[in-house]
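## Example pair
The file below holds two records. Each record gives the amino-acid sequence first, followed by its structure token line.
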Amino acid sequence: MNVRMLVNGAPVEIDVPGMRRLLDVLREDLGLTGTKEGCGEGECGACSVILDGQVVDACLVPVSQADGSTVRTVEGLAPTPGGGAGDRRLDELQQAFLETGGAQCGICTPGMLMAARAYLDAGGGPDEAAIREAIAGNLCRCTGYTKIVEAIARAAAGGAA
């Protein structure tokens, strides 16, 4: 199947079996290895990406469902002013994770970032309960989520501590 989609702002056209997982196409065919596979069953959220504005588990999405869609992965978070890779800086959410210690081993971090980005893009604020609900589909085995929630709240408040 010929699949066309916009991935991190760039048009992509790829010929793959339609039932191939979006996760595998992103990682293996497009080289976007930031999206992680945790459980492969849609339970952990490590493979979360934003598909047409909604957080989805890429391990559960056949690539045929992404045809004609917009996909955003963790690689697409950091803006590139002027288009030069040398000018790349962190997204304010990534910066907040760095400053608060929200990232531990790194397996859940890309999925957490994508769930948090969707929450913030939808107008989410620094409310702890709302943040916890927004990331409820993402599991972290390293932390008690405190630093992750703190990072998202910091980004929601515009970087204020």
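Second record, same layout:
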Amino acid sequence: MNEEKKFGLIGKNISYSFSKKYFGDKFHRLMLKDHSYELFELDEIEKVLEVFKKQNLKGLNVTIPYKEKIIPYLDELSEEAAKIGAVNTVLIRNGRKTGYNTDAAGFEKSFKLFKKNHHKSALILGNGGASKAVQYVFEKMEIPYETVFRNGDLTFENLTPDAVSRNTIIVQCTPVGTFPNVNECVPFPFEGLTAIHLVIDLIYNPNETKFLKNAAAQGARTTNGLFMLEQQAEKAWEIWNT
């Protein structure tokens, strides 16, 4: 009999999680009866130490708000995770815990599907773990960007329609508008958007956030974070199985 292999997701308010169903379906398709996937709802990051003690735990996904906070609890980081400063995938092998960032690979694949030649500069909304993966991808692709967040030079309060119109890529990286708070939306001067804008909201539940609805009403091209999420999950699966 094969050794049991356990995987899971750590985060907060993760009952709606994409990952459990995604990997559960994958295990079923591949007839991996010895694989399981569990949700680890943690109210504080210190409790990850209890998760690490679980027998036959081979890998974890990490989501909000622990992508940065988990780093001190790991033994090493991949080059990408170290540069980004955020981890969304953990490989556990021979007692060592290695952090990776597959958000960057997932976002890059998703972004390349939609990017056009006139998409030359970006505004990134938020400065958490997901935002840092997007920043990493734009630096790699040599796309100039500005980050909009509460303590930054550019904030949601001083962001102007003119700044929006100058930057034809907008990436919404905050959790605002995620289910069940589907009527919430970050403050944003939507009147600065045009038909040549590409607006990406990394949220996937709901399928179309209030932010995307408002952007689409201005004629902008919009997409959510589902394809990115699928791609980062596949990259995590690859890491766990190499």
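Notes on the second record: The helical segments are 18-29, 48-52, 79-84, 103-114, 129-140, 161-166, 210-217, 226-240. The domain at 5-101 is CATH 3.40.50.10860 (Rossmann fold).
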